[in-house]
Amino acid sequence: MIFGILAAILSGALMSVQGVFNTGLSKDTGMWISAAFVQLTAFIVCIGAWFVTGRDSNFQQVLAVDDKYRLLGGVLGAFITFTVILSIQKLGAAHGIMVIVVSQLIVAWLIELFGLFGSDKMDFSWRSAIGAALTVAGVVLFKWN
Q1: Tens digits of residue pLDDT in 12-58
Q2: Among 104, 110, 114, 101, residue whose Cα is nearest residue 129
Q3: Using an 8 Å Cβ cutoff, are 117 and 68 in contact?
Q4: How many whole angstroms separate alpha carbon 87 and alpha carbon 82?
């Protein structure tokens, strides 16, 4: 559990820094060139990591998955990069990332609540609903002048 929490903290920190980097890059190069470069460099790193870690899987396995919608992660990644850049440009780093995180939380909660995309379905809990509402209220309070 501790490793999972540390990984989540690192992930959030990296996503925040990446969002700021990507936004700066897009100002110099344009939105879609920036997004393409980010995805290309991610691809290169992933291929390098695959070679270094022993190649315990291959690309044929990707094409053999039963639920083909799972192949859309890269497509979503391109639009994630685009929308993160756009939100940071329009809202600033702190507010943009806060809204992104709240959106992630609520959508993930709904995915589990309804058991979408093969996830385990969880029961509705008022405690979770109140927690999500308090998180939204925290973003509003953070930005309130």
Answers
A1: 899 999 999 999 999 999 999 999 999 999 999 999 999 999 878 88
A2: 110
A3: no
A4: 9
pLDDT tens track for 56-83: 888 888 888 889 998 899 999 999 999 9
At position 17, the amino acid (one-letter code) is V
DSSP per residue, the chain: -HHHHHHHHHHHHHHHHHHHHHHHHHHHH-HHHHHHHHHHHHHHHHHHHHHHTT--S-HHHHHT-S-GGGGGHHHHHHHHHHHHHHHHHHH-HHHHHHHHHHHHHHHHHHHHHHTGGGPPP----HHHHHHHHHHHHHHHHHH--
Q: How many CB atoms lie within 10 A of CB 90?
A: 9
Q: Please measure the distance between the N-terminal and C-terminal CA atoms of the chain and give it in whole angstroms.
A: 38
Q: Copy the structure tokens of residue 26.
A: 């897009």
Residue whose token pair is 């053999």: 64
Question: What is the token pair recorded at 84?
Answer: 């993160």
Ramachandran class of 121: left when φ > 0, alpha when ψ lies in -120 to 50, beta otherwise: beta
